[in-house]
């Protein structure tokens, strides 16, 4: 089976902090996949290693069967990326940023069409820095979609958005999924994850402690909701009163929260690369 994304035994340390500690997962074509975990669990580092902007210490990653480090050019024609901290020039306008992004690709989508679809047609001449948080997030989705990607990576896309703006973004993501796009997202909002994700992986201290569907996560223990399941897996130290989930017989893959708590962040040799992130 060809996967949109395959990650195997990925390891990445920053000095003495093992941010990603043997992470493996696959994402099927057309799937919406959520990478979940508390602050510092290793989500962004995993995505960055996967996308080839950070060099992993060990392990491998492939997107659409391509190596993100050696087939970078070909890969970024087919992949869209939105990071938490998108960088752009001071004073640049929405139109200018879209045109500059479009110029990087041979077969790009029409930015004006995308801006209109995302309700940004009226702010094209405005400076990006003058946009509201919701407008800016939608612009970042537009930028990620300009290359007409087959796979799109969205890192905490709806953080900071009001309820209406979040719902608008969800609607757009559902449309993208219906068109067959593979979506890999990180999020701290479990309602969003329930709404959007076909499957999730929960990271704790750099390791995957659960992977499966949302119903499988809820059914993996005495949980009334995804949020309860998530907290037991992702915040095991705070879930002293929570009951450990049972290993599901047929679905989902679980490392118990108590195991995850014991994993900690073992010290490792300093990574030669440290904290340097390469640009895309
Ligand atoms: N450039 C860096 N230099 C040193 N340590 C880093 C760097 N980036 C991340 N870390 C550390 O690596 C660990 C994982 O961080 P990462 O940003 O991948 O987590 P995250 O799950 O994306 O968190 P958040 O939800 O807060 O974005 C944390 O302990 C973090 O402090």
Automatic annotation (TrEMBL):
<comment type="similarity">
    <text>Belongs to the ABC transporter superfamily.</text>
</comment>
<feature type="region of interest" description="Disordered">
    <location>
        <begin position="241"/>
        <end position="280"/>
    </location>
</feature>
<keyword id="KW-0547">Nucleotide-binding</keyword>
<dbReference type="InterPro" id="IPR003593">
    <property type="entry name" value="AAA+_ATPase"/>
</dbReference>
<dbReference type="GO" id="GO:0005886">
    <property type="term" value="C:plasma membrane"/>
</dbReference>
<dbReference type="InterPro" id="IPR017871">
    <property type="entry name" value="ABC_transporter-like_CS"/>
</dbReference>
<feature type="compositionally biased region" description="Low complexity">
    <location>
        <begin position="241"/>
        <end position="262"/>
    </location>
</feature>
<dbReference type="InterPro" id="IPR027417">
    <property type="entry name" value="P-loop_NTPase"/>
</dbReference>
<dbReference type="GO" id="GO:0016887">
    <property type="term" value="F:ATP hydrolysis activity"/>
</dbReference>
<dbReference type="GO" id="GO:0046677">
    <property type="term" value="P:response to antibiotic"/>
</dbReference>
<dbReference type="InterPro" id="IPR003439">
    <property type="entry name" value="ABC_transporter-like_ATP-bd"/>
</dbReference>
<feature type="domain" description="ABC transporter">
    <location>
        <begin position="5"/>
        <end position="230"/>
    </location>
</feature>
<keyword id="KW-0813">Transport</keyword>
<protein>
    <submittedName>
        <fullName>ABC transporter ATP-binding protein</fullName>
    </submittedName>
</protein>
<dbReference type="Pfam" id="PF00005">
    <property type="entry name" value="ABC_tran"/>
</dbReference>
<keyword id="KW-0046">Antibiotic resistance</keyword>
<keyword id="KW-0067">ATP-binding</keyword>
<dbReference type="InterPro" id="IPR050763">
    <property type="entry name" value="ABC_transporter_ATP-binding"/>
</dbReference>
<dbReference type="GO" id="GO:0005524">
    <property type="term" value="F:ATP binding"/>
</dbReference>
